[in-house]
Amino acid sequence: MEYLQFVIIIVFSPLLQGVIKKLKANMQGRVGPGVFQPYYDLFRLFKKDMVLSHVTSWIFKATPYIVFTSTAAAAMIVPVITTISPFGIMGDVIALIYIIAVGRFFMALAGLDAGTAFGGEGSSREMTVAILVEPMMMLSIFTAAISAGSTNIARIASSQNILYSPSHILALSAFIVAIIAETGRIPVDNPDTHLELTMIHEGMLLEYSGKYLALMEWAHYMKQMLLFTLAVDIFFPIGISSDTGFSAIVLSSGIYCLKMFFMAGLMALIESSRAKMRFFQLPSLLGGAFVLALLSLLTYIMMGK
Amino acid sequence: MKNWIQVFSIIDFISVGILLTAIAMNAFRRIESCVRAYMLNSWLLSALIAVVAFLIGETHLYIASIITLIGKGIVIPLFLRRIVRQMKITRDVEPYISNVLSLTISGILVAVVYASLREGIFVAGFSRNVLQISVAVILIGLFIMISRRKAITQVIGLLFMENGLFLAGFSLTFGMPVIIELGVLFDMLMGLIILGIFAIQIKRVFTSSDLDKLTILKG
After folding, report:
1. Is the pLDDT confidence value at B7 over 80?
2. Which of B6, B9, B15, B16 to probe by mutation at the A interface, max A CB count within 10 Å?
3. Taking CB atoms and an 8 Å cutoff, what residues of chain B touch A290?
4. Does any CB of chain B come closer than 8 Å to the CB of residue A101?
5. Does residue A1 sit in helix, strand or coil?
6. C-alpha span between A245 and A282 (Å, rounded)
7. What is the pLDDT of residue A16?
8. Which one is predicted more confidently, B214 or B29?
9. Of A203, A240, A282, B213, which sits most exposed with the smallest number of CB within 10 A?
10. B186-189: long-range contacts at Cβ-Cβ below 8 A with a sequence spacing of 24 or more?
11. Interface contact flag, B114 A294, Cβ < 8 Å
């Protein structure tokens, strides 16, 4: 069972996306598509033919597989419903962030590969955002890692049941900004449109179609669920089970569903209540969040909790 | 109730809030938001005093808390807002340094304070953390005064420094006698009124409240 918990992320990540879309639509007074719509979309895309530009190189064809497998590999490290993680020895939270970065690197290359203006634009923006987000994510995770005495995610999750101190609240708020930036949600990027002047993530995928597009989209959903799970594991791991007995797993799964639903609601709320920022104002938001993360670490070191 | 304050580390939360509002001031360009940050800072300061007063059971601290709330939390922000409306300026255009850089510098200031005040001067009082935070607020207020162009934002920087000084004194001595607090507050109010009138006069004479223009000689 514990070997298969990463399958949860692969299978249920489109559902999470559907739930976020549905909640967002309801908050805005629309009916919205059903929660299973992302599955239908993926299924339809897998059946379709692909159009490949003849100027593209092998990078363009390899990228969907690299992005998908790197995200799946990252999902193996994260404890989802039990902290007994057999792949935990494979890597810690730092490895996780850089496995995700491999996928991002190839995605940016593929955006440049087709040679269109929008792809290059998307890649350059994605890398700009990534430079700002990565150190902030690291710092906010380090706050939790120091108090747990380890960078292993399973150990962080099992060592602290309740986190209630100024430093953790600061780190959590910085981490939520990092999640918003990484998953391309509204103050940073608009996930719903292909409006050419504003897109970041969509810009890089513009040349993809059919099966490759499905893989890229699916990898994006997985990355989103992975980051939510990481936030839950690090900042409020209460309720995650530490053994693999049947009742413990059932209870832990229920709590995990509730937490994911809460995260989805939070994202939908932020997306409905905020307007997208201009790209050149982003450093201001992300810089502010970076200072929050820095303060959280300093406060932890000073107050000792 | 007292137990409850300890368990949920209310004092830590409020003092970190005071630090955060001071840092947030660096990110704001609209002067109304700066005034709001100062108002929040004063409210948190007053709340901190009230919590400490409750913990140690001192009556005169309650009075200090109420004076802070009324003076710094209500009267001064309202006065500042009136000046802003009269001068018809809404934002600090062309700051000396960018938002992100000034945020980063204030973060570094906090790090320097935390590192240099780790041990030593704290002898009595209720919390070493609060002392460190108060020194950080003083330095951030000073930094705001250096890095802003407009007269009115520099005044707000001064007010932040005063809040920091008040907090430093309070964390070391559990507050000075009420009569001194009253005197300080009254002084500050007078100073603020004079500075406000100055700012309006500068605006009228130079048709701008940008203090850089004061280097130009007028015959």
Report:
1. no
2. B16
3. 103-104
4. no
5. coil
6. 46
7. 94
8. B29
9. B213
10. B188/B71, B188/B76, B188/B159, B188/B162, B189/B71, B189/B75, B189/B76
11. no
Calculate how close chain A gets to B38, using CA atoms only, in Å: 18
Please list, residue by residue across A99-108, b when 16 or more beta carbons sit within 10 angstroms of its beta carbon and e when fewer do: bbebbbbbbb
Domain span holding position B23? 2-215
pLDDT, tens digit, 9 for 90 and up, residues A190-209: 877 776 677 788 888 888 88
Higher pLDDT, B151 or B165: B165
**Which candidate from A284, A298, A301 shows the least CB-CB separation from B100?**
A284
On whether any CB of chain B is under 8 Å from the CB of A295, the answer is yes
Report, in angstroms and rounded to the nearest whole number, the Rg of chain B calculated over CA atoms.
18
More confident residue, A245 or B137: B137
For residue A262, give its domain range.
2-303
Number of domains in chain B: 1
Residue B126 pLDDT: 67
Averaged in consecutive runs of 10 residues, what is the pLDDT profile of chain A (305 residues)?
82 94 92 92 92 88 94 90 75 87 92 87 91 91 86 82 77 93 86 73 86 93 94 85 82 91 93 86 88 90 76
Interface confidence (ipTM) of the complex: 0.80
Interface of B with A in 1-20 (CB under 8 A): 8-9, 12-13, 16, 19-20
A74 in Cβ contact with A100 (< 8 Å): yes
Q: Poorest-confidence range of A262-266, B102-106, B167-171?
A: B167-171
Alpha-carbon distance A251 to nearest alpha carbon in chain B (angstroms): 28
pTM: 0.88
Residue of A nearest to B109 (CA): A295
Q: Which pLDDT does position B93 carry in this prediction?
A: 62
Percentage, residues of chain B above pLDDT 90:
22
Q: Coil, helix or strand for B30?
A: strand
Please give the residue of chain B at the shortest CA–CA distance from A132: B100
Q: How far is CA A37 from CA A43, A142, A190, B17, in A?
A: 10, 37, 19, 43
Instruction: Give rounded-to-5 percent helix, strand, coil for chain A.
Output: 75, 0, 25
What is the spatial distance between Cα A29 and Cα A150, in angstroms, rounded to a whole number? 45
Q: How many CB atoms lie within 10 A of CB B38?
A: 25
Tally of structural domains, chain A: 1
Q: Exposed, middle or buried, A28 (CB in 10 Å: 0-12/13-18/19+)?
A: exposed
